[in-house]
Amino acid sequence: MAEAAKDTGQTQPRKVKYRKAKASWNPAMQAIPVPGIRRMVNMASTMKDVIHLSIGQPDLPTPKHIIDAYVDALNAGQTGYTMDAGLPELLVALRDYYGKRYNRKLTRDNILITSGATEAMYLAITSTAQPGRQFIITDPTFLLYAPLIRMNGGEVKYIPTRPENDHQLDPDEVIRAMGSRTYAIILNSPNNPTGAVYPRSTVETIVEECAYRGIQIYADEVYDHLIFDDDDYASVLKCSVDLDNIMCISSFSKTFSMAGLRVGWVISSQATIKSLRRYHMFTTSVANTPSQFAGVAALTGDQQCVRDMVDIYRERRDKIVELIDQTPHLTGYKPGGAFFAFPTLPPHVDGSDVALRMLKETGVCTVPGDAFGEHTQNALRLSFSTTCEKLEEAFDRIIPWMAKQQF
Ligand SMILES: Cc1ncc(COP(=O)(O)O)c(C=O)c1O
């Protein structure tokens, strides 16, 4: 400004017009959609007396011994960084816990502690997705995977799962979809948004074929304890011979109602963990320290709290299945895990339009199927992470409203 004034001989500085700087985002940002869940929740936040069947996190309280361990860690001054791979006590606890659960020999070097399964998935996908590499995922799918793949130039190949098949994954369809560009498959069982739990035969067939073809498997097993009908949970850790092409990802968020404490992990071969560990140092450095102490208490404490929570979710699952059956225009099935039902409206009905009108006219907030994929636009995701009383109250509103609809 002073220079400009000098040049023109003016005593007052001349006003120079500056262009407003525009944020210049990396074009990869375009791969990140506006989440369908947000759209609904934002609208619900402007309304009164809303019943949320849109919730994607546990509503049950975190068990007290876990909270105590968190507070004790804070009081003991555990507020610094941990080792980059994670708190040594937690690595040992996870090694022992998984070793016992799946009768599998692991070492601490097979494990990396992350800020939730979200960071673990971020590390796995963004360290490997690139142009020319295809990732197979289901449609519908948890909304994190496809944007992360596409942001890094990877290609997404969808395998539809269908309501008439209880959204089970057909392993033959998966194998037929594998080609020369296929780099990885992301498995998510129990599944968000469908609640489908894949049986051992499905997981074993896919794991075997991937090992044969050198295809990576990223298994998102965050709901691995929320299983209602089958004790034999088919983790990839149980179905694979070695870990060379496997990343098993989970967290404390759902099993122990610790979503906000942000601790998850990746289990894989030592070579993979070594590489991811370096990347992790450049993303979040380490997971939250007192939360990792809370995680040790969760794994080494009495597991009755988990069994109690599963019993509660099972009762709610049975309730929502019964209520969906009584609802005109909705066709359901029995989800085997997680806390989601994914019933369908008649074909060609726009689930988004129904979810929005239903929210406005009944005050029940659901998430439309198009938030999770292309082939399930006539579906609604209903979360049963809420009490049976709230579920009944919600359906007391939904059932008469649906009865009036002329689809
Ligand atoms: C399938 C799935 N994977 C991962 C996550 C994220 O879990 P975390 O809280 O461990 O980051 C969620 C959370 O809703 C989920 O549903």
TrEMBL record:
Keywords associated with the record: Aminotransferase, Pyridoxal phosphate, Transferase
GO process terms (BP): amino acid metabolic process
Documented EC number(s): 2.6.1.-
Domain Aminotransferase class I/classII large: 48-398
Gene3D superfamilies linked to this entry: Aspartate Aminotransferase, domain 1, Type I PLP-dependent aspartate aminotransferase-like (Major domain)
Spans traversing the lipid bilayer: none
An annotated Gene Ontology molecular function: pyridoxal phosphate binding
Cofactor(s) required, per the database record: pyridoxal 5'-phosphate
Family of the protein in this entry: Belongs to the class-I pyridoxal-phosphate-dependent aminotransferase family.
Name the UniProt record assigns to this protein: Aminotransferase
Organism placement in taxonomy: Bacteria, Pseudomonadati, Pseudomonadota, Gammaproteobacteria, Pseudomonadales
